[in-house]
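Appendix C. Worked example: Homogentisate 1,2-dioxygenase
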Amino acid sequence: MATRNWIPVRGAQGRRSRQAHADLPEGTFEREISKEGFFGPAAFIYHPRPPTGWTSFEGPLRPRAFDLNRLNEPAGSPWSAPVVLHNAATEIRFWKLAGPMPNLARNADGDQLLFVHEGRGDLFCDYGRLPFQAGDYLYLPRGTMWRLAPDGPAALLTIQATNTHFGLPDKGLLGGHALFDPAMLETPAIDEAFQAHQAERGDFRVEIKKRGQVSVVTYPYNPLDAVGWHGELAPVRLNVRDIRPVMSHRYHLPPSVHSTFVSDRFVVCTFTPRPFETDPGALKVPFFHNNDDYDEVLFYHAGDFFSRDHIEAGMMTFHPSGFTHGPHPKALKNMFSQPKPATDEYAVMIDARDPLDVGEAASTVENPDYVNSWRSPG
Ligand SMILES: [Fe+2]
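Step 2, the predicted output written as structure tokens:
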């Protein structure tokens, strides 16, 4: 974030709490309005009604939900997978793969992150072999040649850092080994299975994506023929079950605390199971907020999505900035007391600093009624 001389304000009016997300005035709902995600100046406004109490919502801006499970056409190439959301900084696709990729892939447009929603198998790449399973993030540095060989069908969310890189978040006060120890990052191995893959005969096609267009380079041998490598750049694997979320029993932490990978103009966060807050006055559901500088995307991987009604694994919600969002009515009933001791959800969040556009394929699996899902039941 650029250093700014923010316009100085320290105001307070009417009935309010002194501590954000805790000890709200009786009968109120808190809404956060803030700059630069949850890191800039912010205000907390106390409303007598949930700020999502709309009865109609007209025009191009609205909360949106897509059932990506219904994108049924499997694609052998990641570059044929349907684009779900995109802007100049990223391209997000949902890729169903029926079996091993027939060709190799290389992304010349930027670093690539794959999130394995379903399936297991092997990633073969310039650096060797890396087995994968559901819940894995696979990071592929720009220019890496790779091929996925799942044992059966697989489904992946693919996230591109256009013309730039993925890195890790600054862990600040938590220290470098919080969330996950860097030692948990697995790199590919030059092992027997990789050598057996190298020994396959025939023509090998590499589909290179550059500026969104695909070129094909053919070799009369398998170009994943490395006999060794060393360095500080390689694909890595991290499973969501290896992430150890941070929480506070007295304060509902903002979603940015779950950041897993960061790029220049967006972040990728992971929601994993964690205990609910126990302090009697602390909020136990996400606070209402406008997310004013970021477009927010959530992909639901597994579990019970505690702040959302009618959302199942394989669905994606998209909340462009510009309106308040927060828990659904059913979840809101548990604002101050949760029936369960812990959340049971795995979800991938992408927070984009620039507005995202909806891809054509996503529009075909949109739930147009999602905007009405905040209406109080009955
Ligand atoms: Fe948000």
